[in-house]
């Protein structure tokens, strides 16, 4: 089994990441052997990449609120691993950030997951994470997948992205904050 340092160096040396490495940009993810909870999402935001701190934006604030954790618990407990589908900011598209690069998670998730043997639950944030990890098991829409989150427990907990762009979705779906968020908080608290 590769060590964390060996995997990090391999990611930096991968030709797929050459432009990032040449610019001095490091891959952004967090592994910890004691992690019991994983956060799997699309890719770091531009702000996260610039500050080298994932979920360091309004989306992160909302995610921590949903989880019922403080910034200190989120960043410093060692109980939470962060594994985006791409470890680099993909750039801006017409209606938001570009999707994660194809083939990236396939190459790097498996060796990193082996380094977190105690992870019990993965929060699958957004459609890309749900598509990758749930495949054909997911519902026809993201909303339906999140509504039926209990179908994927105890391994996965699908969530909508906490982006400010999704505030309209949350207003249309009050059941999310009324019933899904409290269950998420209970499960997170039990793990950390």
TrEMBL record:
Gene3D superfamilies: Uracil-DNA glycosylase-like domain. It holds the Pfam family UDG. Residues 28-185 form the Uracil-DNA glycosylase-like domain. It comes from the Bacteria. Signal peptide: none annotated. This is Uracil-DNA glycosylase family protein. It comes from Lacticaseibacillus hegangensis.
